[in-house]
Design brief:
- With 453 residues, this protein is α+β, with helices and mostly antiparallel strands.
- Strands 7, 8, 9, 10, 11, 12, 13 and 14 form an eight-stranded mixed β-sheet that branches. Strands 1, 2, 3, 4, 5 and 6 form a six-stranded mixed β-sheet that branches.
- Strand 5 and strand 6 form a beta hairpin.
- GO terms for molecular function: glutamine synthetase activity.
Length: 453
């Protein structure tokens, strides 16, 4: 790295440092759950280093800090990876006490090959498959989350945060501006942090749950948008902590409230013409449009563990609670798992409403794009458009993590797109987490089974 490396970073990061002395650089990478792992180094050292090392075991770590067993034929020897910075991802860390930048790194093995189970590499792999066909995938994520009261005892239920009125946040106030105002100080910090980091928020709304908010991001390159969601989760948590509350991205943090989703909007452009391949010359829907939907319908069940990665994730899929229970598709229909929003022909897009906000953004977007890609390549046809209330139908994707893992492990086409080695490692980690969960006796079991069975 040259001493003038800061001239190669995004304008927002340069503006953040203007007339200031850079103190520290956080060299980070996403693990499988989406937690930032890495090292913080003095700015002077970062300027001298081309790369740094971390053991590849970070990708075998579960959400509880335990480790998945078996790392291949050589055993669990924890070889080092080479992590190289992507300077285009350089971003401020405006909540720190000094002047700090964050830089996302990519992981390579000793031969210079991308580590196949690094989430960012998985998404890059899928995007490259589209590009090889002359296509440019475009996505727009929507992030739902809760602002909650500090929860220091896991045995106690999660409660909504107290707003500036002094009252706990109320439920069923979707799109209420008064409800948004209740969280004004937190939202102000979210906007300030996002501006310092160079992120453009398309809008913030109150959702249906008590203390539940949604942030929409502008559409763009899938890897860039996944980077932003990865950054945003930390940004939002830091903003909440400044105001004596927590931000949670659990799929279902409060039992009788709606869950939190990461809805993913997709469109595909022709690389040569820039035209949306979902729209024909006369503005009509193309075969590619229906094939993409068909791919989501046929293959999303095989990647549910990437979209719903924890046992809690499956609690979100409840009838009439703003989450889908099946993969019907419909136009402007929020009861379906696959929705086609109202738009002009040039902006025609398909929305995946299955992904939870607890998913790793790189893996959630990769899984969704992989399903659509298979649909396009195999020219799979969508089922007939669903009209009416899709909650009246039956569920058609796995409803438990164990069942979902079984289906993923039996899939073949999806492994070719996402990578067999990635799915092998992911399955090891998720099986370990599931076994850990099954070893815990819940309050429900103690209450209803202890003296009654």
């Amino acid at each position: 790295m040259s001493d003038d490396w800061t001239t190669q970073i995004p304008a927002a990061a340069q503006a953040y440092l203007e007339n200031r002395r850079l103190d520290e650089v956080e060299c980070i990478i996403s693990d499988l759950p989406g937690i930032a792992r890495g090292k913080a180094v003095p700015a002077s050292k970062f300027a001298r280093q081309q790369f740094f090392h971390l053991p590849n075991s970070i990708f075998f770590q579960t959400i509880t800090g335990d480790w998945g067993e078996a790392a291949g034929d050589e055993g669990f020897i924890e070889p080092d990876m080479t992590l190289r910075p992507d300077l285009s991802t350089t971003s401020a860390a405006p909540w720190t006490g000094d002047w700090t930048l964050q830089v996302i790194h990519d992981a390579y093995d000793r031969k210079g090959n991308p580590i196949p189970f690094s989430p960012r590499n998985v998404l890059k792999r899928v995007v490259s498959l589209y590009e090889a066909q002359g296509w440019k995938p475009v996505v727009a994520p929507e992030m739902e989350f809760y602002l909650i009261a500090r929860n220091l005892d896991p045995a106690k239920p999660i409660l909504p945060m107290t707003g500036r009125s002094g009252r706990p946040a109320a439920a069923r106030q979707a799109y209420s501006m008064t409800a948004v105002d209740e969280f004004g100080p937190v939202i102000d910090d979210i906007y300030d942090f996002a501006e310092a980091q160079g992120f453009e928020i398309d809008g913030i709304t109150q959702e249906g749950g008590a203390g539940q908010l949604e942030i929409n991001l502008r559409h763009g390159n899938p890897v860039k948008l996944a980077d932003e969601v990865f950054y945003f989760k930390r940004l939002i948590r830091e903003a909440a902590l400044r105001h004596d509350c927590f931000a949670t991205f659990m799929a279902k943090p409060i039992g009788d409230e709606p869950g939190s989703a990461m809805h993913i909007h997709h469109s595909i452009l022709d690389l040569e013409t820039g035209r949306n391949i979902f729209t024909g010359p006369q503005g009509g829907e193309t075969d590619a449009f229906y094939s993409f939907i068909g791919g989501l319908q046929h293959h999303l069940p095989q990647v549910i563990p990437l979209l719903a990665p924890y046992v809690n994730s499956y609690r979100r899929y409840v009838k009439d609670h703003a989450a889908p229970i099946n993969l019907e598709w419909g136009r402007d229909n929020r009861t379906t798992g696959i929705r086609v929003p109202i738009s002009d022909p040039a902006a025609r897009r398909v929305e995946n409403r299955v992904a939870g906000m607890d998913c790793n953004p790189y893996l959630g977007i990769a899984a969704s794009l992989a399903a659509g890609y298979l649909g396009l390549m195999r020219e799979e046809r969508a089922e007939k458009q669903f009209r009416g209330d899709a909650y009246e139908g039956e569920g058609d994707f796995p409803r438990t993590l164990g069942e979902a893992l079984n289906e993923m492990e039996e899939a073949t086409g999806i492994a070719e797109v996402l990578g067999e080695e990635f799915l092998r490692v992911y399955s090891i980690v998720k099986r370990t987490e599931y076994e850990e969960f099954l070893g815990v006796i819940s309050p429900w079991e103690r209450e209803h089974l202890l003296l009654n069975v």
